[in-house]
């Protein structure tokens, strides 16, 4: 049975899926029924926290002694979810204490660092899935006339291998994946899921005492960091969080987490967009790199010929080369960095100090905004001479 719930993104109609938390709740419901009746249901169904009904076939039912186990296959819909197709198992036993006790088994990670949804030592099953599992188990038990306690162990055997493809190792979750979901539904290519991950990392570092953080969009920045450490060795002690294209949203999340200092480190190809007020740097929200270089070059006195060459440039590397040829790199970068600082300060709105530093592979470190330079000097005391 296919989960038929769709959303529209632009011209596309995309099928939603359901979270590992929903799978765990469905599996728990089926396993409780098997434990108390001796017969596994063909399917299980629950309403997610958003009220959407999810029904899924029950797989691999097994009853061994006093333990019943059932599995539900993760359906991620059209989302490229790393756990898509994986089986989520619930094993259920009666217990003498009242209520529902929930733990993680094979392939479900364990929390080793503070600042996450669950305390250190607990299975990485977030609070909403825990409530969903408990509710599903109790409702299934009540339907069978049982009012006693239950112990539920959630496992995801493939999670041991899949965890390496997630952020869990960086978050301090070891041994497997997390059982997640606040709505119970997977939205295709979910922006919220990415922002949730960024927020978790920021809160984790903050819980460990960090007052400052480096936000960087991705691989280019990670590759450049060792070179920046050579210039500012103190930065090695500052946690780095990948923010993808979400510079503005990540700055908001950092401010909400209570950071005092935020340094945005980005390739000029992304950071130049911020000068134009584009704080989500994905190309779907605009690509005005050439236009911004051209406008700021004009402010610096560029000739019409230089302006035309910048407008026709296909890459920011080419823009820098053109500016070098015209002897305008320094004033144009200074103008752009000033505009970038203005936009970042506007977004931070006094909640934290924020600045930016930028680079390009071919030329290395290009410079920093006013506040970015101050942060570099403060956080990396062995500054370059």
Please describe what this structure looks like:
This protein has 13 helices and 20 strands. The chain has 385 residues and is α/β, with parallel strands linked by helices. The chain folds into two domains: 184 residues, CbiD-like (2-Layer Sandwich), CATH 3.30.2110.10; 188 residues, no CATH class. The strands form seven sheets. The chain has a five-stranded mixed sheet. A five-stranded mixed sheet has the order 17-16-18-19-20, with helices on both faces. α1 runs parallel beside α2, α8 packs across α12 and α9 packs antiparallel against α10. The protein is elongated and about 85 Å long.
Helix and strand topology:
Elements: E1 6-9, E2 12-15, E3 17-18, H1 20-37, E4 43-47, E5 53-57, E6 59-64, E7 67-73, E8 87-95, E9 100-104, E10 107-108, E11 110-111, H2 127-143, E12 149-155, H3 159-162, H4 168-171, E13 173-174, E14 176-177, E15 185-186, H5 191-207, E16 212-216, H6 219-231, E17 240-242, H7 247-257, E18 261-267, H8 268-275, H9 289-299, H10 304-312, H11 316-326, H12 329-348, E19 353-360, E20 364-368, H13 370-379
Parallel strand pairs: 9-12, 10-14, 16-17, 16-18, 18-19
Antiparallel strand pairs: 1-2, 3-15, 4-5, 6-7, 7-8, 8-12, 11-13, 19-20
């Amino acid at each position: 049975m296919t989960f038929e719930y769709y959303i529209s993104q632009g011209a596309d109609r995309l099928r939603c899926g359901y979270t590992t938390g929903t799978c765990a709740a469905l599996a728990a419901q089926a396993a409780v029924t098997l434990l108390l009746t001796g017969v596994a249901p063909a399917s299980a169904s629950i309403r997610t926290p958003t009220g959407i009904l999810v029904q899924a076939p029950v797989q691999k039912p097994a009853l061994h002694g006093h333990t019943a186990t059932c599995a539900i296959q993760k359906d991620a819909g059209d989302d490229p979810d790393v756990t898509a197709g994986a089986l989520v198992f619930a094993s259920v036993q009666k217990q003498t204490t009242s209520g529902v006790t929930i733990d993680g088994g094979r392939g479900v990670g364990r929390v080793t660092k503070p600042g996450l949804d669950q305390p250190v030592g607990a299975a990485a099953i977030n609070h909403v899935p825990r409530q969903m599992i408990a509710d599903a188990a109790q409702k299934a038990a009540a339907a069978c006339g049982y009012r006693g306690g239950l112990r539920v162990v959630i496992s995801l055997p493939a999670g041991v291998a899949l965890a390496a493809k997630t952020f869990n190792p960086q978050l301090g979750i070891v041994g497997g994946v997390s059982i997640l979901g606040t709505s119970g539904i997977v939205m295709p290519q979910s922006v919220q899921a990415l922002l949730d991950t960024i927020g978790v990392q920021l809160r984790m570092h903050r819980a460990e005492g960090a007052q400052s953080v480096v936000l960087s969009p991705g691989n280019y920045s990670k590759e450049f960091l060792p070179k920046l450490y050579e210039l500012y060795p103190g930065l090695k002690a500052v946690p780095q969080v990948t923010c993808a294209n979400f510079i503005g949203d990540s700055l908001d999340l950092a401010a909400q987490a209570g950071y005092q200092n935020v340094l945005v480190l980005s390739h000029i190809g992304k950071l130049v967009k911020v000068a134009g007020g584009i704080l989500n740097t994905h190309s779907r929200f605009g690509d005005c790199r050439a236009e911004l270089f051209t406008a700021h070059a004009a402010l610096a006195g560029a000739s019409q010929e230089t302006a035309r060459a910048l407008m026709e440039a296909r890459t920011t590397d080419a823009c820098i080369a053109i500016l070098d040829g015209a002897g305008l790199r320094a004033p144009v970068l200074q103008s752009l960095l000033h505009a970038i600082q203005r936009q970042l300060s506007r977004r931070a709105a006094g909640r934290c100090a924020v600045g930016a530093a930028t680079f390009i592979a071919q030329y290395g470190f290009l410079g920093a905004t006013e506040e970015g330079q101050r942060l570099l000097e403060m956080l990396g005391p062995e500054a370059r001479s």
